[in-house]
Amino acid sequence: MMVRTVRWTWLTLVISLMMLGVGPAHAGVGDTRPGAEAGFVKLDPIKYKFVIPLKKDSLDVPFTTTESRIFYTFQPADKSPETAPLFVFLNGGPGAATTANFFANNTAPYSINLGAVGKDTAGVVKNPHSWTSMGNLLYIDPSQSGFSYNVSDEIFSDPEYGSVLKKLWTEYWNAGNFNAFIDADQLLRVILTFLAKHPELAQREVVMVGESYGGVRVSTILHMLMNSADYDTNGSSFFRDPGMASMIRTHFKTGDKAPSPEVVSKQFDRQVLVQPQLSSYQDEEQGKLYWAKDSVIDDVAKAAKTTFSRSKAKCWWFAVLTKNTCVLMVYLKDYGRDRYDWAQRLDYSDDQDAYSNKAMRDVRILTTMLGVKPQDIPMLKKSERGNAYHTMGFPVIGDDERPTQDTTTLKGVFGSLDAPDSYYVSWNEVAYAASSMNLGSVVRSRLPISPDKDPLFGDMFLENLKYVRTFLTDAKRDLVIFSDAMAPALARHTGLVKGVSTREENWYETGRMSVTWKDDTTTHIRWPLYRDAGHAVAMTMPDKLLVDVNDWIDGQDAGWSRRHLEWNPGNARLAAWKSDDVRLRLTRPAVKSGSLLLLPAKAKTFAGVLTFRHGKKAAALRRVSLQREHLVATVDGRRIRLMSVAGNGQARLTAPGARTLNNRLDVDIFEANTPVGRLVERLP
Hints:
The strands form eight sheets. Strands 1, 4, 5, 8, 9, 10, 12, 15 and 16 form a nine-stranded mixed sheet that branches. This protein has 19 helices and 33 strands.
């Protein structure tokens, strides 16, 4: 929920200040798919309470949420869905739709990512990097984002506009519908309800996947699962929901006893966190790094042909903005750079969000993405929504303006909705503001419920880490969640850890973050590098992200070091592992007339040998091995020593004709004296 994790607009800022007192394969558009599913989980009003400690007693502050209808879409695994793991995707904000982000951008069977779609397509393309190759996928739109909406008869009991607006204000800011704990509570209920209705998946391994503020969501959900007794009627947590605790016991079949973390982690044993918000200290640590001498912001300014002045006066509202948010909201705008990917122009991420918002309203595109016809989804039609609300009544940015008789849109198929309802909201800034500043001053001031300010959320992540295997991304172009600030932020949780260190991925070692606990034991986190990716890693490096997660799931990184090679022309990528030898595995084919043709379906590895087809000829062998700290390749009977590793871990070029260019190892490969490719490796 950090300021940096969302797209701020003037409406968001005004509300906040008021509260403070200031070339792909084309999809068959409209096709459905067997096994795909989409629908809503109806959550009846939830009764919960916050318990505020007093000097001699405590004060119970009860809340009852409004009915919520939470949207989900399920995409089955390509192979053996009945035995494959279940990946549960959650995006952030809060207020950002999972369907507009993870689902839209190169993880599902189809994609509406602008980089993949291009200008000459039907607006949606088949995704070659679908995570269905690894398992079953469940995407959930959190409350008031995407297709999810609330229902309240009370709001519309008096149809006069002023009355409706006043009651909406209460719904967003005072009714207990929006805070980090009830948000996670609702999402956990959806997950458990889905599993209960799908017995074939109920006991499958669950991998939680969170991006941005989705990191807070995943941390809180896992903490609730593993410590459900604390959240029960007489638990030790200040947030208590006995209904949720009961659902957890029912799922794990533990009777009246809460399941232990060991029991829970047998099923919920992994988390993939893409540029996540985890600790309240991230904001401060990012600010320190940004304002330090020769920082990444100097690089951004240089790219924009200017300099980073480090002037606090430039942020005239500096009393509200931290050093971090000053950079993100002011300096980057001046530089014309996107804070989610500083190598891109200013509106790069917003343009993707706007397109997702538009595409998800197109019935043909939506059918292709979901694999289900929208007409067959209960509670989506106007006639089945009841007294729904989805906004504060303000116009929805990017709302469909085409006439209602246009049957390609949700509005055209189901009819126009009256404000404050909307079929789809990719980014709900009111939900973001409400999540940041609701529940009244008493609860906000007395309880640690803010992920932006309270260390509790980082503590929960670290406590989960002892039971849940963890994958974190290291995306170098993201300034919203700056990867280099993650370790120092977590290291400040001194009640739990002694220190946190990192080892960035290089040509001979995997990336790793290591947490040393108070008892001197250590937990390692997989931390792969994405040098050419921003906040949404799957937008620009979906192939490497898929390979990295798949290898991590398969245990390929345990005791191995991995590196990436690119074989050009054709831009094939080989992933290599080093142990007693180097094993190569093809991850993307190179197809070009007269060039080397590598077919992944035919590629095999054994004893350090890669077997593949060479053009239309018979199968040929290429051998790559590690011999006395030298990386040696055998190509057409010729041995080429590519590089050697010095004692300090630095690579030294040894191949004939080898050279470096822009920190890349560049070795020409010849066949019959004709150059057919180039083996390229980025150096540390």
